[in-house]
Write a structure and sequence with these properties.
Radius of gyration: 23 Å
CATH architecture of the largest domain: 3-Layer(aba) Sandwich
Number of strands: 11
Oligomer: single chain
CATH topology of the largest domain: Rossmann fold
Mean pLDDT: 84
Low-confidence stretches: 318-358, 422-426
Shape: globular
Number of helices: 19
CATH class of the largest domain: Alpha Beta
Helix content: 40-55%
């Protein structure tokens, strides 16, 4: 049985989901984009409110407070879609599809911590949601491939099954589907992150059986009835990597296609997990170029133990801090107001007249606590980035702010960062 939909999620659905009616409603109101929703969530948070408050008796007063900084007429039109929401929820429930938002406690932590504000506000799914934070091996590749690569994907997925490692993929035909089928046929577990037609995928007989056995979970950040869209497929790529402990690119074209763009995005920007690429003389140019860009050659583990060791050694970016330390990081969650006042005053200016984001302050506070605890000796920016499990560019932003606050000291030649001794002793 699906869990009840929270009031926060209902509000976010009204604001940011098509609800069976397309992105533009008959009254002309267009649903919020992820950027617009993030902006609204920040404004709500600044007023110590949350999305559910827009459905409360005090909603009129809250909307009045927002009027100078947001198109509240548009919000009112979207929030008035209550009947459409009830129809959508009934339709999804009939196919055992549940929906969760970033405001819900069981929303995947890996999306929150690895993608930040780019984590989808809403997530639709069918199956055992506990699989979503269990890690695994992401396997991606082209749709149109030779049979030998299909067999390679299935064999690798079968090894994952024997090792108790979940396979994570996109569910598209070709490598993605072969990886999922290879794991399930060997008695393993799989997660499919779909870009389209979730409502159809969950009723396929083989899928239903595996879902019922809690071995398959299908999710999508897009409306369950959405058709294929290239843009959606591209956006979905980062979610595949975000759930994984490591990723394997079986094959990729060079500088074109979703497999290439998704892998490059991970290597150069998100760095959610280590990216491996199948190597050797017979691999396509795309694989070779990915390795040149920073992907690691796939070591071709042949036994379950080898695969377990490979993933165990992969650096984690989700276990360094607790949920409590990240409370308020994402829109839709209430922010602890103390001790924000002191930190807000000490934060460097955001520039261009932008108000300091309170959730960013809260996250900086968590990072500050970790570094004051862990910096027993001076470390480089790269070493600190590895310690925190974040890209060096993100570490650089935090380090600069903490040096300006006086929490850390910075030395030159070589550049290293250390915790102030007096503050550590206190």
């Amino acid at each position: 049985m699906n869990r009840p939909v929270s009031d926060n999620t209902k509000a976010i659905l009204l604001l940011a989901a098509p609800l069976l009616a397309g992105t533009k409603q008959r009254n002309g109101a267009r649903i919020l984009t992820i950027t617009e929703y993030n902006q609204l969530a920040r404004l709500l948070r600044e007023g110590n409110a949350q999305p559910a408050d827009l459905l409360s008796p005090s909603a009129s007063a809250l909307l009045a407070d927002l009027r100078l900084r947001f198109d509240t007429k548009r919000l009112e039109e979207l929030l008035a879609r209550g009947f459409l929401l009830s129809q959508a929820l009934e339709t999804w429930s009939s196919r055992a599809i549940r929906v969760a938002s970033r405001a819900d406690p069981d929303y995947p932590r890996r999306f929150k911590f690895r993608l930040g504000l780019e984590a989808p506000p809403l997530l639709y799914g069918c199956g055992d949601w506990s699989l979503l934070d269990g890690g695994g091996l992401a396997m991606v590749g082209s749709r149109h491939v030779e049979e030998d690569l299909i067999e390679f994907a299935k064999k690798t997925a079968s090894t994952c099954a024997a090792a108790g490692i979940t396979v994570i993929s996109g569910g598209a035909k070709g490598i993605d589907l072969a990886a999922i089928e290879g794991s399930l046929s060997a008695g393993g577990r799989a997660i499919g992150i779909l870009a389209d037609r979730l409502s159809q995928a969950v009723v396929v007989r083989d899928s239903r059986d595996a879902i019922r056995e809690k071995r398959l979970t299908l999710i999508s950040p897009f409306d369950p009835a959405a058709g294929f869209n290239v843009g959606n497929a591209m956006q979905r790529n980062k979610l595949i990597y975000a759930l994984a402990d490591a990723a394997l690119v079986v094959n990729s074209d060079h500088e074109k296609g979703g497999t290439w763009s998704g892998a490059i995005e991970q290597i150069e920007r998100f760095r959610a997990c280590p990216v491996f690429a199948r190597s050797g003389e017979d691999v396509p140019t795309g694989n070779k170029k990915l390795i040149e860009a920073g992907a690691r050659p796939w070591p071709s583990p042949t036994t379950p133990n080898d695969l377990i060791t490979l993933l165990k050694d992969a650096p984690s970016t989700v276990s360094a801090t607790s949920d409590a330390e990240y409370e308020g990081f994402l829109p839709g969650l209430r922010v602890r107001e103390e001790p924000l006042a002191k930190l807000r005053a000490s934060m460097p200016s955001a520039g261009r007249g932008t108000a300091v984001n309170t959730s960013a302050v809260e996250l900086l506070n968590a990072v500050r606590s970790i570094l004051l605890r862990e910096l027993e000796k001076p470390l480089t920016q790269k070493e600190i980035a590895e310690l925190l499990g974040v890209p060096p560019r993100q570490a650089s932003v935090w380090l600069k702010a903490l040096v300006e606050q006086g929490a850390l000291t910075k030395t030159k030649r070589p550049v290293r960062y250390a915790a102030r001794i007096l503050e550590k002793q206190n």
